[in-house]
Design brief:
The protein is α/β, with parallel strands linked by helices. The chain folds into 2 domains: about 5-100 and about 290-305, no CATH class; about 105-280, Glycogen Phosphorylase B (Rossmann fold, 3-Layer(aba) Sandwich). It is about 45% helix and about 15% strand. It has 12 helices and 10 strands. It has helices at about 5-10, 25-40, 60-70, 80-90, 105-110, 140-150, 165, 175-185, 200-210, 225-230, 260-275, 285-305, and strands spanning about 15, 45, 75, 95, 125-130, 155-160, 190-195, 210-215, 235-240, 250-255. The strands form 2 sheets. Strands 7-6-5-8-9-10 form a 6-stranded parallel β-sheet, sandwiched between helices. Strands 1-2-3-4 form a 4-stranded parallel β-sheet, sandwiched between helices. Helix 3 links the parallel strand 2 and strand 3. Helix 2 packs parallel to helix 3 (about 60-70) and helix 6 (about 140-150) packs across helix 11 (about 260-275). The longest helix is centred in the last third of the chain and has 25 residues, at about 285-305. The radius of gyration is 21 Å and the shape is globular.
């Protein structure tokens, strides 16, 4: 659908872009929006990422945004902070609509009803290194987490990661991280779980087994992982970069590409341990939010079609 040739002939009323254009050059994106404009087809763009979490440098994504944001007939984003940045950088207004639930509602209801929660009494703090996309920096936060969690009676630090990064023959093995984690696990400082990519069902089971999920990001904008945790009643500790803290009730620490305050991370973990906050979203709140988001999209689509 991102090929200008497809957009030139396909039948649709509104072209709504959200993700998936990383492999497109700015020239291809420019031609795409020119085709849409020539055909009189409205172009809606939801700005999820103002800083691409998969790119080490921001330059390529900035070039894409410089094409897409000015060309859109209507912009949507997820937080007021992102809307302010869009206004500052491009002079455009964006409709702010919250990120809807990620976990399906029946699973949310089951977990929140207590049928899927773990039964042990361990307070479990999770750090998920996934496959180490560019915006992640677990090595910076791990020493703080090991020291902090080690001082909390009945608490366990659980680190999960994918085989491609942490196993010896992994295609994207990170030797420094893998060696550190295996040594820390051997000394009893953390529990290490290495596995393939989770299915949705396995991911929801894993996230609901945690009391806290720490996001080890040094840059980024918004997080679906954060929303999934809130769906399952798991407290999220987020860095100060991006606009994660505006997505919903979370705990925070100071971390971006230039700054890291280990005391703030320790304080957030200790607060979660001592207060056991309930920062999740209820099923009914998510159902109502989804209804409101859908109605807002319907209004946006109708307005851009009428304007064209």
């Amino acid at each position: 659908m991102l090929q200008p040739e497809w957009a030139a002939t396909a039948g649709f009323d509104v072209f709504h872009l959200q993700f998936g254009f990383d492999a497109c050059s700015p020239q291809q994106l420019d031609e795409l929006v020119r085709v849409l404009h020539r055909r009189g087809k409205p172009f809606v763009y939801t700005v999820h990422d103002l800083r691409n979490p998969h790119h080490e440098s921001r330059s390529a994504h900035d070039l894409a945004l410089d094409v897409l944001v000015p060309a859109a007939d209507h912009l949507v984003t997820l937080t007021p902070g992102a809307a302010r940045e869009i206004r500052r950088r491009w002079g455009r207004e964006a409709t702010v609509l919250p990120h809807p639930h990620v976990v399906d509602l029946p699973t949310m209801a089951a977990v929140q009803g207590g049928r899927s929660r773990r039964s042990d009494e361990t307070f479990r703090i999770g750090l998920h290194v996934k496959s180490l996309r560019a915006g992640m920096d677990p090595m910076t936060v791990l020493p703080t987490l090991i020291e902090t969690v080690g001082s909390l009676p009945g608490a366990t630090l659980q680190v999960n990661g994918h085989r491609d990064v942490l196993e010896g023959d992994g295609t994207r093995r990170d030797e420094r991280l893998a060696s550190y984690l295996h040594a820390a696990a051997s000394s009893g400082d953390l529990e290490l779980q290495v596995h393939d990519f989770f299915s949705d069902k396995d991911l929801w089971r894993y996230l609901s087994s945690l009391d806290v999920s720490v996001l080890p990001y040094r840059f980024g904008t918004h997080s679906g992982w954060l929303e999934a945790c809130r769906d399952l009643g798991t407290t999220v500790v987020v860095p100060s970069c991006g606009y994660f803290a505006e997505q919903g009730p979370v705990l925070g620490y100071v971390r971006d590409e230039r700054t890291y305050d280990e005391r703030s991370l320790a304080a957030a973990v200790i607060e979660a341990y001592e207060s056991r906050p309930d920062l999740g979203a209820t099923v009914e709140a998510r159902r109502e939010q989804r209804r409101a988001v859908a109605e807002a999209h319907e209004r946006i689509y109708a307005s851009v079609v009428d304007a064209r």
